[in-house]
Amino acid sequence: MNTSLQLLLTRHSLGAKHLVDPAPDDAALNQMAEAALHAPDHGELVPYRFVVVRGAARERLAAAFTAAALRAGKDEAGAALDAERAARPPVTVALLARLDLGHPQVPAHEQWIAVGAALANYLNAAHALGFAGKMLSGAKVRDAGLQAAFCGPGETLVGWVVLGTPARPPSTRAAKAAARDIWQDWTE
Ligand SMILES: Cc1cc2nc3c(=O)[nH]c(=O)nc-3n(C[C@H](O)[C@H](O)[C@H](O)COP(=O)(O)O)c2cc1C
């Protein structure tokens, strides 16, 4: 099979507990960003940006996750789990959407599609480079403290992509849907 298609057909998400060092370095993160920029984007608005959390910054993210968990009413054990989710991944990348809601030609839904397409290209590029990861959001994205920590004015905290080297091959799983069931010819 064509190797590019093979890459697309073998990408799977992998959670933080299966991600180890080495993490994508600057060169890899840049190639992933380049791939994101090649995704469909009406008006070339680039309605997204990535914020990389790595090294010592992971402890700051863990503290921010702890605070958010406590604000959400979690107990100490629950907050510690959230802190672990921030500290464990080799790299965590926040995905921020920055939509131009007053754009005369490109409505919001098209800009959201561009954000999703960029994310898909970003994850596929990580996979092509030998890394794995997973996009995560959860109630945390609605926490005012975390939003303030990551977002500029008008931006939306979409979530965080955890990234690293896969510690194990992806588990086999049932297909989401049969490919032949999600397309059809247009008939009268
Ligand atoms: C914007 C966005 C947010 C997501 N948030 C979560 C999440 O909080 N928790 C989770 O388990 N999966 C979340 N997912 C789904 C996973 O990233 C992943 O796509 C899903 O587990 C299916 O695995 P696959 O990518 O291998 O098909 C999210 C996906 C997207 C696109």
From TrEMBL:
Superkingdom, taxonomy of origin: Bacteria
EC numbers for this chain: 1.-.-.-
Keyword Coiled coil: no
UniProt keyword list: Flavoprotein, FMN, NAD, NADP, Oxidoreductase
Broad EC category: oxidoreductase
Swiss-Prot/TrEMBL cofactor(s): FMN
Segments forming domain Nitroreductase: 19-164
Pfam (any one): Nitroreductase
Keyword Secreted: no
PANTHER family: NAD(P)H NITROREDUCTASE YDJA-RELATED (PTHR43821:SF1)
Family classification: Belongs to the nitroreductase family.
Name the UniProt record assigns to this protein: Putative NAD(P)H nitroreductase
Lineage: Bacteria, Pseudomonadati, Pseudomonadota, Betaproteobacteria, Burkholderiales
